[in-house]
Input
Amino acid sequence: MTMGLKANADGSGAIQVGGSDAITITSGLVVSMNGGVGGLVSGTAVASTSGTSIDFTSIPSWVKRITVMMNGVSTNGTSQVQIQLGSGSFTTSGYTGAVNNGGGTNTNNSGGFQVTASISASDLIYGAAYIVNINSNNWVCNGTSVNGNVRLFAGSIALSGTLDRIRITTVNGTDTFDAGSINILYE
Amino acid sequence: MSTVITAGNATNGLSLSADNTGSFEFKTGAGAGTSALTISSAQVVTFAAAPTGAGMLTSGTSVASTSGTSIDFTGIPSWVKRITVMFNGVSTNGTSAPRIRIGNSGGVVTSGYLGSCLGNAGAVVSNVSFTAGFDINDGATAATTRIGAFILTLIDASNNWVISGTQGQGNTNAASFIGGSVNAGGTLDRVRITTVNGTDTFDAGSINILYE
Output
Protein backbone atom coordinates (compact mmCIF):
# COMPACT_ATOMS: atom_id res chain seq x y z
CA MET A 1 0.00 0.00 0.00
CA THR A 2 1.28 3.46 -0.81
CA MET A 3 0.71 6.91 0.55
CA GLY A 4 -0.95 8.79 -2.29
CA LEU A 5 -0.28 12.27 -1.01
CA LYS A 6 2.68 14.43 -1.95
CA ALA A 7 3.19 16.36 1.25
CA ASN A 8 5.70 18.83 -0.11
CA ALA A 9 4.96 22.28 1.23
CA ASP A 10 6.29 24.69 -1.37
CA GLY A 11 4.36 27.77 -0.39
CA SER A 12 2.29 27.78 -3.58
CA GLY A 13 -0.99 27.23 -1.82
CA ALA A 14 -1.76 24.22 -4.03
CA ILE A 15 -2.08 20.52 -3.34
CA GLN A 16 -1.08 17.60 -5.51
CA VAL A 17 -2.34 14.09 -4.84
CA GLY A 18 -0.96 10.89 -6.32
CA GLY A 19 2.52 9.88 -7.39
CA SER A 20 2.02 11.37 -10.84
CA ASP A 21 -0.04 14.32 -9.67
CA ALA A 22 -3.27 12.53 -10.54
CA ILE A 23 -5.21 15.27 -8.82
CA THR A 24 -4.09 18.87 -8.54
CA ILE A 25 -5.97 21.43 -6.48
CA THR A 26 -4.81 24.92 -7.34
CA SER A 27 -4.70 27.90 -5.04
CA GLY A 28 -7.73 29.07 -7.02
CA LEU A 29 -9.66 26.01 -5.80
CA VAL A 30 -9.82 24.37 -9.23
CA VAL A 31 -9.45 20.60 -9.17
CA SER A 32 -7.73 19.04 -12.20
CA MET A 33 -7.75 15.35 -13.02
CA ASN A 34 -4.79 13.96 -14.93
CA GLY A 35 -5.18 11.16 -17.48
CA GLY A 36 -7.61 8.36 -16.98
CA VAL A 37 -9.53 9.91 -14.18
CA GLY A 38 -13.11 10.73 -14.92
CA GLY A 39 -16.21 9.17 -16.34
CA LEU A 40 -15.81 8.81 -20.11
CA VAL A 41 -14.23 5.46 -20.92
CA SER A 42 -13.30 4.02 -24.32
CA GLY A 43 -13.87 0.40 -25.14
CA THR A 44 -11.46 -1.40 -27.44
CA ALA A 45 -12.06 -0.74 -31.11
CA VAL A 46 -12.97 -3.90 -32.99
CA ALA A 47 -12.35 -4.41 -36.71
CA SER A 48 -15.73 -5.35 -38.13
CA THR A 49 -14.16 -7.48 -40.83
CA SER A 50 -15.38 -10.93 -39.89
CA GLY A 51 -18.01 -12.75 -37.90
CA THR A 52 -21.75 -12.28 -37.60
CA SER A 53 -21.71 -10.26 -34.40
CA ILE A 54 -19.43 -7.99 -32.40
CA ASP A 55 -19.80 -7.96 -28.63
CA PHE A 56 -18.72 -5.54 -25.95
CA THR A 57 -19.01 -7.20 -22.57
CA SER A 58 -18.17 -6.46 -18.93
CA ILE A 59 -19.70 -3.00 -19.10
CA PRO A 60 -19.68 -1.69 -15.52
CA SER A 61 -22.93 -1.52 -13.58
CA TRP A 62 -22.62 2.23 -12.95
CA VAL A 63 -22.82 3.11 -16.64
CA LYS A 64 -25.64 5.45 -17.64
CA ARG A 65 -24.77 6.27 -21.22
CA ILE A 66 -23.13 4.27 -24.00
CA THR A 67 -22.12 5.58 -27.42
CA VAL A 68 -21.78 3.01 -30.17
CA MET A 69 -19.58 4.32 -32.99
CA MET A 70 -19.44 2.87 -36.50
CA ASN A 71 -16.73 3.78 -39.00
CA GLY A 72 -17.09 2.33 -42.48
CA VAL A 73 -18.86 -0.79 -41.23
CA SER A 74 -20.04 -3.20 -43.91
CA THR A 75 -21.60 -6.62 -44.19
CA ASN A 76 -21.78 -9.08 -47.07
CA GLY A 77 -25.57 -9.04 -47.34
CA THR A 78 -28.79 -7.09 -47.19
CA SER A 79 -29.90 -7.76 -43.63
CA GLN A 80 -30.19 -4.58 -41.57
CA VAL A 81 -27.64 -3.93 -38.84
CA GLN A 82 -29.01 -3.80 -35.30
CA ILE A 83 -27.81 -3.27 -31.76
CA GLN A 84 -28.84 -5.53 -28.92
CA LEU A 85 -28.33 -5.00 -25.20
CA GLY A 86 -28.11 -7.58 -22.49
CA SER A 87 -27.85 -8.49 -18.87
CA GLY A 88 -26.06 -11.79 -18.45
CA SER A 89 -27.16 -12.69 -21.96
CA PHE A 90 -28.39 -10.73 -24.93
CA THR A 91 -31.99 -9.59 -25.11
CA THR A 92 -33.39 -10.55 -28.51
CA SER A 93 -36.99 -9.34 -28.28
CA GLY A 94 -39.09 -6.58 -26.79
CA TYR A 95 -37.43 -3.63 -28.50
CA THR A 96 -39.69 -0.78 -29.51
CA GLY A 97 -38.99 2.05 -31.92
CA ALA A 98 -38.16 2.51 -35.55
CA VAL A 99 -35.61 3.51 -38.12
CA ASN A 100 -36.44 6.16 -40.68
CA ASN A 101 -34.80 5.78 -44.08
CA GLY A 102 -34.39 9.52 -44.45
CA GLY A 103 -37.20 9.66 -46.94
CA GLY A 104 -40.15 9.31 -44.61
CA THR A 105 -40.41 5.52 -44.49
CA ASN A 106 -40.25 4.01 -41.01
CA THR A 107 -39.46 0.40 -40.13
CA ASN A 108 -40.16 -1.18 -36.78
CA ASN A 109 -38.00 -3.98 -35.45
CA SER A 110 -38.59 -5.71 -32.13
CA GLY A 111 -35.39 -7.75 -32.21
CA GLY A 112 -32.98 -4.88 -31.66
CA PHE A 113 -32.26 -1.23 -32.34
CA GLN A 114 -32.09 -1.19 -36.13
CA VAL A 115 -29.59 1.42 -37.31
CA THR A 116 -29.68 0.95 -41.08
CA ALA A 117 -32.30 0.86 -43.84
CA SER A 118 -32.27 -0.50 -47.38
CA ILE A 119 -28.74 -1.75 -46.87
CA SER A 120 -26.72 -3.45 -49.59
CA ALA A 121 -23.47 -5.37 -49.44
CA SER A 122 -21.58 -2.41 -50.86
CA ASP A 123 -22.81 0.09 -48.26
CA LEU A 124 -20.47 1.52 -45.66
CA ILE A 125 -22.02 2.61 -42.37
CA TYR A 126 -20.92 5.76 -40.55
CA GLY A 127 -22.52 7.18 -37.46
CA ALA A 128 -23.27 6.78 -33.80
CA ALA A 129 -25.99 5.46 -31.52
CA TYR A 130 -26.55 6.96 -28.09
CA ILE A 131 -28.00 4.60 -25.51
CA VAL A 132 -29.01 6.09 -22.18
CA ASN A 133 -30.45 4.69 -18.98
CA ILE A 134 -33.78 6.40 -18.39
CA ASN A 135 -34.66 4.56 -15.17
CA SER A 136 -34.30 1.16 -13.54
CA ASN A 137 -33.18 -1.21 -16.31
CA ASN A 138 -34.92 0.72 -19.06
CA TRP A 139 -32.74 2.06 -21.85
CA VAL A 140 -33.44 4.50 -24.66
CA CYS A 141 -31.51 4.65 -27.93
CA ASN A 142 -31.32 7.31 -30.62
CA GLY A 143 -28.90 8.34 -33.31
CA THR A 144 -28.10 8.97 -36.93
CA SER A 145 -26.14 6.85 -39.34
CA VAL A 146 -25.31 6.72 -43.00
CA ASN A 147 -25.62 3.73 -45.27
CA GLY A 148 -26.06 5.25 -48.69
CA ASN A 149 -28.40 7.89 -47.27
CA VAL A 150 -28.75 9.20 -43.74
CA ARG A 151 -30.91 7.07 -41.41
CA LEU A 152 -32.54 8.19 -38.18
CA PHE A 153 -33.43 5.80 -35.42
CA ALA A 154 -34.83 5.69 -31.91
CA GLY A 155 -36.20 3.07 -29.56
CA SER A 156 -36.25 1.58 -26.10
CA ILE A 157 -35.83 -1.71 -24.30
CA ALA A 158 -36.52 -2.96 -20.80
CA LEU A 159 -33.78 -5.31 -19.67
CA SER A 160 -34.30 -7.99 -17.05
CA GLY A 161 -31.31 -6.83 -15.05
CA THR A 162 -28.31 -4.53 -15.03
CA LEU A 163 -26.89 -3.92 -18.49
CA ASP A 164 -23.48 -5.50 -18.95
CA ARG A 165 -23.15 -6.06 -22.69
CA ILE A 166 -23.84 -4.73 -26.17
CA ARG A 167 -23.95 -6.67 -29.43
CA ILE A 168 -23.84 -5.33 -32.98
CA THR A 169 -25.23 -7.85 -35.42
CA THR A 170 -27.68 -8.15 -38.28
CA VAL A 171 -31.40 -8.91 -38.19
CA ASN A 172 -30.93 -12.30 -39.84
CA GLY A 173 -27.90 -13.05 -37.68
CA THR A 174 -26.06 -14.72 -40.53
CA ASP A 175 -24.69 -11.90 -42.69
CA THR A 176 -20.99 -11.42 -42.05
CA PHE A 177 -19.14 -8.20 -41.28
CA ASP A 178 -16.51 -7.46 -43.91
CA ALA A 179 -15.21 -3.90 -43.38
CA GLY A 180 -14.84 -1.06 -40.91
CA SER A 181 -14.56 -0.78 -37.17
CA ILE A 182 -16.84 -0.42 -34.18
CA ASN A 183 -16.19 0.86 -30.69
CA ILE A 184 -18.08 2.13 -27.67
CA LEU A 185 -17.68 4.92 -25.18
CA TYR A 186 -19.35 4.49 -21.82
CA GLU A 187 -19.84 6.73 -18.83
CA MET B 1 -15.05 18.79 10.96
CA SER B 2 -12.92 16.55 8.87
CA THR B 3 -9.39 15.46 8.47
CA VAL B 4 -8.09 18.67 6.92
CA ILE B 5 -5.07 19.04 4.67
CA THR B 6 -4.09 22.63 4.02
CA ALA B 7 -1.54 23.47 1.35
CA GLY B 8 1.51 25.41 2.41
CA ASN B 9 1.55 29.01 1.27
CA ALA B 10 3.48 32.22 1.82
CA THR B 11 2.34 32.60 5.42
CA ASN B 12 1.66 29.08 6.65
CA GLY B 13 3.34 25.74 6.11
CA LEU B 14 1.60 22.57 5.16
CA SER B 15 -0.82 21.55 7.89
CA LEU B 16 -2.64 18.38 8.66
CA SER B 17 -5.32 18.04 11.29
CA ALA B 18 -7.24 14.85 11.90
CA ASP B 19 -10.47 13.95 13.59
CA ASN B 20 -12.58 10.80 13.71
CA THR B 21 -15.37 11.78 11.31
CA GLY B 22 -14.11 9.73 8.40
CA SER B 23 -14.20 12.68 6.03
CA PHE B 24 -11.54 14.65 4.17
CA GLU B 25 -11.23 18.34 3.43
CA PHE B 26 -8.57 19.84 1.18
CA LYS B 27 -7.79 23.55 1.52
CA THR B 28 -5.71 25.63 -0.86
CA GLY B 29 -4.89 29.29 -1.38
CA ALA B 30 -3.60 32.05 0.89
CA GLY B 31 -3.53 32.30 4.66
CA ALA B 32 -5.51 29.59 6.42
CA GLY B 33 -6.64 28.30 3.03
CA THR B 34 -10.11 27.84 1.59
CA SER B 35 -11.93 24.56 1.18
CA ALA B 36 -11.50 23.33 -2.41
CA LEU B 37 -12.47 19.67 -2.17
CA THR B 38 -14.30 17.62 0.41
CA ILE B 39 -14.85 13.90 0.55
CA SER B 40 -17.58 12.88 2.98
CA SER B 41 -17.58 9.74 5.09
CA ALA B 42 -20.16 8.45 2.59
CA GLN B 43 -17.60 8.92 -0.22
CA VAL B 44 -19.40 11.89 -1.74
CA VAL B 45 -16.93 14.26 -3.42
CA THR B 46 -17.78 17.96 -3.50
CA PHE B 47 -15.82 20.53 -5.49
CA ALA B 48 -15.74 24.24 -4.72
CA ALA B 49 -15.11 25.08 -8.38
CA ALA B 50 -15.79 23.27 -11.64
CA PRO B 51 -13.22 20.50 -12.07
CA THR B 52 -11.12 20.39 -15.20
CA GLY B 53 -9.16 17.72 -16.97
CA ALA B 54 -9.61 14.24 -18.41
CA GLY B 55 -13.16 12.99 -18.29
CA MET B 56 -14.56 16.31 -17.17
CA LEU B 57 -17.15 18.08 -19.28
CA THR B 58 -15.50 21.35 -20.22
CA SER B 59 -16.96 24.32 -22.04
CA GLY B 60 -15.04 26.17 -24.68
CA THR B 61 -15.45 29.88 -24.99
CA SER B 62 -18.61 30.81 -26.84
CA VAL B 63 -17.89 32.75 -30.02
CA ALA B 64 -20.28 35.21 -31.62
CA SER B 65 -20.64 34.02 -35.20
CA THR B 66 -21.20 37.55 -36.44
CA SER B 67 -18.12 38.09 -38.58
CA GLY B 68 -15.38 36.31 -40.40
CA THR B 69 -15.36 33.30 -42.68
CA SER B 70 -14.35 30.72 -40.11
CA ILE B 71 -14.45 30.14 -36.38
CA ASP B 72 -11.74 28.04 -34.76
CA PHE B 73 -11.55 26.27 -31.44
CA THR B 74 -7.94 25.39 -30.75
CA GLY B 75 -5.93 24.02 -27.86
CA ILE B 76 -8.27 21.08 -27.35
CA PRO B 77 -6.50 18.69 -24.94
CA SER B 78 -5.10 15.40 -26.20
CA TRP B 79 -7.20 13.31 -23.81
CA VAL B 80 -10.52 14.44 -25.31
CA LYS B 81 -12.78 11.66 -26.58
CA ARG B 82 -15.94 13.60 -27.34
CA ILE B 83 -16.63 17.08 -28.65
CA THR B 84 -20.05 18.65 -29.00
CA VAL B 85 -20.26 21.53 -31.48
CA MET B 86 -23.25 23.73 -30.72
CA PHE B 87 -24.97 26.22 -33.04
CA ASN B 88 -27.33 28.85 -31.69
CA GLY B 89 -28.94 30.99 -34.38
CA VAL B 90 -25.94 30.76 -36.68
CA SER B 91 -26.29 32.62 -39.96
CA THR B 92 -24.12 33.63 -42.88
CA ASN B 93 -24.54 36.19 -45.62
CA GLY B 94 -24.66 33.64 -48.41
CA THR B 95 -25.87 30.32 -49.77
CA SER B 96 -22.90 28.10 -48.96
CA ALA B 97 -23.54 25.27 -46.49
CA PRO B 98 -21.86 25.25 -43.08
CA ARG B 99 -18.83 22.98 -42.82
CA ILE B 100 -17.19 21.46 -39.75
CA ARG B 101 -13.58 20.41 -39.96
CA ILE B 102 -11.21 18.96 -37.40
CA GLY B 103 -7.45 19.08 -37.28
CA ASN B 104 -4.19 18.49 -35.48
CA SER B 105 -1.16 20.56 -34.59
CA GLY B 106 -0.19 20.61 -38.26
CA GLY B 107 -3.41 22.24 -39.38
CA VAL B 108 -7.01 21.57 -40.31
CA VAL B 109 -7.79 18.40 -42.26
CA THR B 110 -9.28 19.33 -45.63
CA SER B 111 -9.94 15.95 -47.23
CA GLY B 112 -10.87 12.38 -46.44
CA TYR B 113 -14.24 13.06 -44.87
CA LEU B 114 -16.77 10.26 -45.40
CA GLY B 115 -20.52 10.29 -44.99
CA SER B 116 -23.52 12.38 -45.92
CA CYS B 117 -26.08 14.80 -44.62
CA LEU B 118 -29.83 14.60 -45.00
CA GLY B 119 -31.61 17.88 -45.54
CA ASN B 120 -35.35 17.86 -44.97
CA ALA B 121 -37.29 21.01 -45.78
CA GLY B 122 -41.00 20.30 -45.82
CA ALA B 123 -41.61 17.65 -48.45
CA VAL B 124 -38.20 18.14 -50.02
CA VAL B 125 -35.62 15.60 -48.92
CA SER B 126 -32.07 15.36 -50.17
CA ASN B 127 -28.96 13.48 -49.17
CA VAL B 128 -25.63 15.06 -49.99
CA SER B 129 -22.32 13.29 -49.44
CA PHE B 130 -19.14 15.13 -48.52
CA THR B 131 -15.37 14.67 -48.69
CA ALA B 132 -13.78 18.01 -47.76
CA GLY B 133 -15.52 18.52 -44.43
CA PHE B 134 -18.62 17.59 -42.50
CA ASP B 135 -20.96 19.66 -44.67
CA ILE B 136 -24.39 20.42 -43.29
CA ASN B 137 -26.84 20.13 -46.15
CA ASP B 138 -29.43 22.72 -45.16
CA GLY B 139 -30.35 24.55 -48.38
CA ALA B 140 -28.51 27.54 -47.04
CA THR B 141 -29.69 31.04 -47.77
CA ALA B 142 -28.70 34.31 -46.20
CA ALA B 143 -31.86 34.07 -44.10
CA THR B 144 -31.09 30.62 -42.67
CA THR B 145 -30.61 30.50 -38.92
CA ARG B 146 -29.27 27.27 -37.47
CA ILE B 147 -29.82 25.66 -34.09
CA GLY B 148 -28.29 22.31 -33.37
CA ALA B 149 -25.58 20.10 -31.94
CA PHE B 150 -23.04 17.87 -33.64
CA ILE B 151 -21.23 15.22 -31.64
CA LEU B 152 -17.74 14.10 -32.57
CA THR B 153 -16.48 10.94 -30.88
CA LEU B 154 -13.08 9.26 -31.01
CA ILE B 155 -13.61 5.69 -32.18
CA ASP B 156 -10.06 4.31 -31.92
CA ALA B 157 -6.43 5.03 -31.10
CA SER B 158 -5.71 5.82 -34.75
CA ASN B 159 -7.37 9.25 -34.53
CA ASN B 160 -10.54 8.29 -36.38
CA TRP B 161 -13.50 10.44 -35.39
CA VAL B 162 -17.19 9.83 -36.01
CA ILE B 163 -19.81 12.56 -36.29
CA SER B 164 -23.51 12.40 -35.63
CA GLY B 165 -25.83 15.33 -35.18
CA THR B 166 -28.97 17.26 -35.88
CA GLN B 167 -29.73 20.82 -36.85
CA GLY B 168 -33.03 22.66 -37.05
CA GLN B 169 -33.68 25.99 -38.68
CA GLY B 170 -35.12 28.92 -36.84
CA ASN B 171 -36.45 30.69 -39.90
CA THR B 172 -38.32 27.86 -41.61
CA ASN B 173 -39.61 24.30 -41.28
CA ALA B 174 -36.42 22.39 -42.01
CA ALA B 175 -33.92 20.10 -40.38
CA SER B 176 -30.63 18.38 -41.21
CA PHE B 177 -29.14 15.10 -39.99
CA ILE B 178 -25.52 14.09 -40.45
CA GLY B 179 -23.38 10.98 -40.11
CA GLY B 180 -19.76 10.51 -41.08
CA SER B 181 -16.15 10.01 -40.12
CA VAL B 182 -12.67 11.33 -40.74
CA ASN B 183 -9.13 10.70 -39.64
CA ALA B 184 -7.67 13.69 -37.81
CA GLY B 185 -4.19 12.94 -39.18
CA GLY B 186 -2.78 13.09 -35.66
CA THR B 187 -4.03 13.94 -32.22
CA LEU B 188 -7.03 16.21 -32.60
CA ASP B 189 -6.45 19.66 -31.17
CA ARG B 190 -8.78 21.91 -33.17
CA VAL B 191 -12.21 22.28 -34.68
CA ARG B 192 -13.09 24.77 -37.41
CA ILE B 193 -16.54 25.91 -38.48
CA THR B 194 -16.62 27.51 -41.88
CA THR B 195 -18.63 27.25 -45.09
CA VAL B 196 -18.19 25.09 -48.16
CA ASN B 197 -17.04 27.99 -50.32
CA GLY B 198 -14.95 29.42 -47.51
CA THR B 199 -15.88 32.97 -48.39
CA ASP B 200 -19.39 33.49 -47.03
CA THR B 201 -19.29 35.53 -43.85
CA PHE B 202 -20.93 34.71 -40.53
CA ASP B 203 -23.43 37.39 -39.58
CA ALA B 204 -25.49 36.16 -36.62
CA GLY B 205 -25.61 33.70 -33.74
CA SER B 206 -23.04 31.96 -31.62
CA ILE B 207 -21.02 28.77 -31.64
CA ASN B 208 -19.37 26.90 -28.81
CA ILE B 209 -17.99 23.48 -28.01
CA LEU B 210 -18.11 21.14 -25.08
CA TYR B 211 -15.32 18.62 -24.73
CA GLU B 212 -14.70 15.72 -22.42
